[in-house]
Design goal:
about 280 residues, 14 strands
Length: about 280
């Protein structure tokens, strides 16, 4: 049997709004409901942002706490991953929810260009976020927007700033950052295996129309896959995505085509060494 594929669902993000797609979950209750449906469709990780009532990004620990409690109640065993991304706050406010002790948290270890701004991840903030994750026993997911970010993760691992073998997610298709390029993708996979071992686990996320492309590349290459309305509000050119669950189901169908079972939450925890 081929190795199980972990499906991560990025339910909300910081940018999509109801005006873009009515299915985008904004309130905590909407996020819990959307996560539960995605969980039922096969997602074993939820990548979570929170929003203010006016749909703007938030880093409010109270909202994260309510979301965590709801997901734990309605999605038994699901891995909860909080975002520490730069659109939700500045400086150490980006990690203000880490004392809540989620299973995982995203960690961007370097800066890069976004469509209209620089996505800043200064070294002192990266070091602080990593230290908080070590202190609270949170597994980081390295969001690699560039090759240098994979190499930086390796350096941090050597220094003990990342305790376990780094779990790297390739993010491709962000305008002004790394496009969805198959040769680059293959080199990323080779680099992870060279630096962290042949059995190192990795994931990939495609932005916008690249979502399904990266899903296919990841599943067929033995990696894990991220999907969700954060990354793409459309199901195809003619249709908005009806839900996060529909996007998860599409990845599950790709897994079936490649004879890869969809990882259960317990299998995902075993694969990623999360208790």
């Amino acid at each position: 049997m081929n190795a199980p594929c972990i499906i991560c669902v990025a339910i909300t993000g910081s940018l999509p709004r109801k005006a873009d797609n009515p299915a985008v979950p904004i309130t905590v209750s909407e996020q819990i409901e959307s996560t539960h449906a995605a969980f039922e469709a096969g997602a074993s990780i939820v990548h979570a942002h929170v929003r203010n009532d006016d749909e703007t990004p938030s880093s409010d620990p109270g909202k994260f706490a309510a979301l965590k409690d709801g997901v734990k109640k309605h999605c038994p065993g699901m891995i909860i991953q909080f975002s520490t991304g730069g659109r939700s706050g500045a400086g150490q406010t980006r990690g203000g929810m880490l004392p809540l002790g989620p299973d995982m948290a995203s960690l961007s270890v370097g800066s890069n260009n976004f469509p209209t701004r620089v996505y800043e991840n200064p070294p002192d903030l990266v070091d602080w976020l990593a230290a908080e994750m070590v202190f609270h026993a949170i597994k980081p997911e390295i969001e690699a927007f560039d090759l240098s970010h994979i190499l930086k993760a390796a350096d941090m691992h050597r220094r003990g700033q990342i305790k376990d073998t780094p779990y790297v997610q390739f993010v491709m298709g962000v305008k002004n950052a790394m496009p969805a390029d198959r040769q680059v993708f293959d080199f990323y996979v080779q680099t992870v295996k060279r630096l962290f071992g042949e059995d190192a686990q990795w994931c990939a996320a495609g932005i916008g129309a690249n979502q399904m492309v990266l899903n296919e590349w990841s599943v067929s290459s033995g990696g894990h896959a991220r999907t969700g309305l954060e990354d793409n509000i459309r199901f195809n050119k003619a249709q908005l995505a009806p839900s996060n669950a529909a996007l998860v189901q599409r990845v599950a169908d790709i897994c079936a085509q490649h004879q890869r079972p969809v990882a259960t939450p317990s299998e995902a925890r075993r694969i990623l060494r999360i208790t």
